[in-house]
Structure of KAP NTPase domain-containing protein:
Amino acid sequence: MDVKLYFYLKKLRLKFNRHTFPFLGVALFAALLFLFRLPVSKLLDAIIVRPLFISFERGIWADIILLLLLLISVIWIAKEQQRKLLFRLTLFGLVFYGFQRTNNYWSFIFMTLFPRFAYWDLVALVMTLALPLNFLLRRKAADNEVIIDNQGFIEDNAVTQLEDDHFNRKTAAAEIARIIQLTKNRKSFAIGILGEYGSGKTSFLNLINLELSSEEVLKIAFNPWTTGKPETIRREFFDLLAREVAEFDLTISSLVYSYGRKLASFDARSLNWMNWLAFFRNRGSVQSSGEHEQINKMLHGLHRKIVITIDDLDRLYPSEVMEVLKLIRNTADFSNVFYLVAYDKAYIHEALKTISELGGQNYLDKIFQLEIPLPKREADDLLTILQDRIKEMVSPEHYSAFENIMIQNDFRRSYEKAYNSILRQGRDVVRFLNSFRIVYRLIGEEVDFECLVILELIKFRFPSIYELIYTQRDLFLSENPVRSTHEQYLSPRMIKNEDADKRLNETSFFKKHIEQFKWLTVEDTSVLDGLFMSLFKVSTHSKTKKINLISYPLYFEIYFRYRLSKKDISDKEFKAAMEAGQMAEYMAYCANHGLHKELMVRLMQENISENRHHFEQVISWIFSFGRTFVEKEGKFRFDYGALVDKIYNYHNHITDKVYKKDISTYKDFITNLLSMAMPPFLFENELIYHLKKKGDNFVIPTSELTTNQLSYFTKMADSGHGLSEETLWLFWGAREYYRIPANEPGTYYEKWRFEPSLVDKMKIYLINKDPKEFLKASIQHEMRDHSLVFITREIIEIFDDPSEYRTLVAQNPLLDDAIRQEYLQLFDKLAEKDFMEYVVVELKTELLKRGLG
């Protein structure tokens, strides 16, 4: 087909579709119906009405069924069809309905439910609902899409509407567009938009195009990076230009098409050196022809400017870059044409240098009459985008922390923790948030939000440093205990340095280590050190109230593995159980799943200094679960010192703050907890031992604490346990310490003895209960030679005369004879040594097995 004919037909079709249809079509349709209304009616009567409706019987059910069918049909049509088609169908349908309804040829059947309406009226009425229903359904679908988008990844889309201009660049874009429209250029005018990767060049090009008048400007977007290879760029460009110009002038379009095809037919390899030479000598291309001049003249007389946008020039290979620049400077250097080209200038320089040493700044200046660096964003622009986006993906509580704490204290600083320097471009914000979304959905409710944001910022900008923090944590961090809160936290290892003024300061091991990396700038190192120190900021003197920080070993791994292991306590589930009053069930779950140690740590870490209710809740849980812990781990594995520190009321800090100076109420609370102890009483008995060791400054006097120990001991001994090993632990645990002066003035020896009130009871039990376990517990073996045996001195001291003890053993009717004889033999040998030395005794009975093991 002839080129001119092709574009002429295309132009006619486009103009007909755009300007005359459907209104001209409706007018023609109406004229035909009016002129041929009788033949049309007879035709419809013959092929549709009589075959289908000759025996139609109206009634209520017919009305209902027809109404339902019509509603289903119109909903399907509104949902599935395009709005433009629905508009045309509605327009044509109403015209057709009007002519047929007023045609005297027809006799209409009226509805039973609504006698004033014919069935034909019902069909027309329902079908007119298709268009408004389409608007409603599409709007609802759009709302749903927004909701789905908010739950998925964020697309890195360029700005396509003025209201989406977060960086306020539309003012500059509008001015560029205004001057373009005022410029009378005889040759093409090329404007370079300069910016780094991801800085928003595409969005700025779109803003300029939005400000250009569609009535005065033909806007064309050419994407050379979609062509695949350099030799096709030229052909694709002129084909695109010809198609777009065809909208307004078929003659120019035909010439452009022909001109482009001729240029594409040249052997690029044979002409490459000539084109390059002509390009850099600023002369006409060897491909120039009379057609170029003709096109140039015709475009000059065109009443529209042509603005050609070329984005991502810095995506191309050097040879492709050169081909595009030749188009701009030589082969497509047409009058009334503007080129808006976006690129990273440093990349284009390097690309030109790979082709020729001549391809430097001077030659690039000959191509672009104007280069405009992308307008700089305001300091908080990226932060505003981050803030708006992150609000959609985090909980209200976390967003409040981000808005009121992190933004104010961290993102707006110009030193140390300069978080905003991590995110340099708008694209960085999108990429960071897409990565953060994944991690937040997995562990956002299990870990500290601020720590998670900081760590993810490091991972986003410096992934290798992120890995280093994980793999080299022992190099950069040390573990420090805070016993009162049962916290084992990680803190940065520091090095003391002396500066030029001989002042001492501290630098982290982490900073010293990363300073060796040549690929990190001084600024990068400073930012990373600030972020690192922020992550591990807990210290002995300044403890935070949060317990799921990355600085706690209990949580460190979770931040990197993005999930809970079988040995991790869920902070979310813990808080849920606490708030729902289901802590008893949660403690049982942890005990049954081997999480008792982790839960006890979590309970110990809970902040209990805010109010009395929470204080008593947590302490009660610790007492209750302490029994389970001791049962599973043994009586010495529990950190009694940490619990003592929590309840000891140092300097009245508990009673002053939590109990409003009501000491008696606090005493009643602790007394009640101790009285609620359950067999075998090992946890409470050992706790009292540690409380008594601290001195007599506890809220409950030592005498009352001892009364509790006596109660535990007697309850166990008088029950079926007798003098079992567990009962004996209660007896041993009630011991008290005392001091005796040493030889040197001011020094002393610390010794211990059994609690006298429990001793009196024990003497009775040694008479009427089997003392086997007591005898086993009294025997000590020399550490190196187990054949050397001794009876614990403190047991002998229970009695005023050791013979009293011998008599009790000798006369106890419940003791096995072999054990009795063996123990008395040992006793007699030690008596000869005044119980001051080990003796050799070969034990053969159960006494050989050590007691209280």
